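Can't attach files on this board, so I'm pasting raw text. These are the components:
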Amino acid sequence: MTTAATIPVPLPDEEQLIPRRGFWRRALSHRTFLFSAAILLIITLIAIFAPMLAPHDPYLQNIAMRLKPPFWHDKTVAEHMLGTDQLGRDYLSRLIYGARISMTIAIGATLMSALIGITLGLIAGYYGGWIDTAISTVITTRLSMPIILIALAVVALIGPSLTVVIVVLGLLLWDQFAVVTRVATQQVCARDYVTAARVIGSSLPHILFREILPNIRAPLIVVATVEMAQAVLLEAALSFLGLGVQAPLPSWGLMLSEAKTSMFFSPWMIVLPGSCLFILALGINLIGDALRDLTAGGRG
Amino acid sequence: MTTPLLEARDLNHVYFLRHGFLKQPAPLRALNGVSLTINEGEILGIVGESGCGKSTLARILLGLETPTSGDVILEGRPVSSYPQRERALAVQPVFQDPYGSLNPSMSVEDLIALPLHVHKIGSRQERQQKVARMAEQVGLPRRALSASPNQLSGGQRQRVAIARALVSGPRLVICDEPTSALDVSVQAQILNLLLDLRAEHRVAMLFISHNLSVIEHMADRMMVMYLGRVVEAGSTQQIFAAPAHPYTAVLRDSVFSPDDDGGVPDLGLRGNFPNAMNMPSGCVFHPRCPVARPECATTEPFLTQAHDASRQNACLFPLN
Amino acid sequence: MLLQVRGLHVNLPDQGERLHAVRGIDLDVAEGETLCLVGESGCGKSMTALALMQLLPRGAQLRSDRLHLGETDLSALPERKLSQLRGRRMSMIFQEPMTALNPVFTIGDQLRTVYRRHTGASAREAQARAIEMLESVGLTNASLRLGQYPHQLSGGLRQRVLIAMALMCEPEMLICDEPTTALDVTTQAQILRILKDAQTARKMGMVFITHDLGVVARVADRVAVMYAGRIVEQGDRASVLRTPAHPYTKGLIASVPRPEGAQPGTRRLASIPGNVPAFHREDARCPFLSRCPARMDVCGAVPPPLRQVPTGQVVSCHLSLDLLEPVPA
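---
Top answer:
Structure tokens for the assembled complex are below.
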């Protein structure tokens, strides 16, 4: 038996509140969350401070220094730690600037698709009826289209650029947001607090943005991470096929594409940007899992 | 004669349910000629089992649904003529599930202030004062105001819901099974609170419950509903002492009290609960009625006055 | 004694901590006897039921000094033996009749499977037994019902099917966890009658879990009142309900609204202030301490003793015997 008398006795008239177990407190003891958050934080910092971190100008060509291997090779050059590409540009600097491109595309495309998907999902879920049927048809149509082919076709038609890639991906990746928002909205609408808000005479924006949206944010955050990872990989694929970001911008996908000619002689030119892509996608996917974990459970 | 606070006249409500993609939707008569009056400061109890239409009635009176036919009259004027804001301020709800009726992403203070906020009543400070006073009246600890509803117990949540319903000074509160999700000792707290608030605010209540002893404790007058119809109405005390409709008697006998002795009584109910899509002929209760006679299967009884003007029942051969 | 439980503890994972749901309870159920386990939500009564069936959720830990069904030590049986025992010697009926039946199989499939698995009977015998059992729980057109799916039945009928299923193999012990809470009041009375009749006919032991003191008054032989994982009072139905001794039992019984014939809206109900606490660490003191109107200094320091009061029940409280003496209602 413990020494009971040391534990304070709550008085009956002092009604107890259930202690809040905050998100951050739980997050800080969640290993996957800490690991993936660290990865993403580092990549984000690298992207933001690229000009300060890059040892060289990523666009500076130096034909005399072409295809120098990274530091673990015998013929390495001390000033180019990760070697140079076929135009003699510093590979490390290009990788660092590449983080900017990837993050810009990931965030831009996700924000855009979230805006489209959440709006459609909210409207469909809240109104139901023929509006729901119409929006559901649009979603199904979108789900039946092969993303990569459509993206290729559109980019080929308009001509590739960073903005075009972001807009095209944003216009294509909203489906998951719409599907999840629609179902979550239907569930929340069935709850009495939404009914209560309607009885009180709340305005539509109040109901949508204060009663419904905050209560479906958990699944939406998870969707956002999935979409971000997808945007990063799709950009790489488009760039690899020559229809994404255009040279000389240092995108990781474009670097892969440029490296494919010298793949057998300089395998590191593929390995390095490939690893960067892998680590970024892994970080985003892992944080999605961790957030799903952390926001699951708990009523409401 | 004074005008009643709220009057419902001959409400009928039909839902159409579709069973399968190509089938004709089938009608379900959720309400069948229901009339009621609630006077100022009065508690009207409505009792009945699942499927009796009590929740549909509540939704209609709250303005969440428009009845297929019939009128709802609030303080002498049809509710359809009320601006939405006025109606919302006059009639407020308290729901059954305290875990579903409070938005978990708002603070308790914002939740209680919601009706004031939506209708822009008072300045920010006045609202805060009003909310604090209301929270105190319903017995919420001060610290609870800044808390999230997730930090509250079921009873505390129901106090928040009651405070929210009363903060705008409504004339009528519609309580749909407000205590059936709570433990008995907490139910007692909430029932006491509702009675105190009625005395203090002179607010009328429509109190819906499946538990006859709760109705007996709370309601001045009561209505018994079965399959969308009112089968008996009148003063709670009189109905309890001598129910006229056999269904009321069955309901009364199915309420068990801790003072009872062992053994489960045979209620004499026959058959199974009927399908609301397929109403029995004659009296809707006759297939289960312990004292049904042949006429009950053919003749439909109507709600008529019996004993004195204050009591009505819909039975061809009333008890007592 | 048919069922004997001593020092039963259950703890569950709860957001990184361990919640002590059941904290050392003793129970005895004799043949043909109904023990009502009564308490409010969070008192541990459902966890006790699951512990008796050895069906606790993943991550739960069970500890007991003694957990015997007849001569069988339940705590020592491997899962294979337990699954042979469940449904045959000991059955359980749950609160929610919809989720307890498998929606993709017919009633008949489910009843026959239970019987054949435990008895090795032929399909024909199982069919006959299923019809017999459905009729015994008052279902008309039993052979027709066997071809129906759970969603085609009303809640009351589904609960009857579950009772029939639980009784297929004539168990010695039946555990009912709030079997009528999800049902309408008139249906509740019918289901309780069926349960009690089945029990009397078979001399079955029954643990009946409920929060409803009115139901307790109708079905119990003995009553155990649970609060925050402990049994605070245990005894005959009449002594516990008519002459409650523990302050919690007194408060609980007083808070039930009951017909008194007085003017409605004029009486106040007795209520217990505050809420049921949750226990995350060992605390041997009285669990009702924080809400008790009769609390004394000693309650905050020393665990309450178990004593028998003159009306016969066993009470866990520090109050002197003459103070525990109930005031007859």
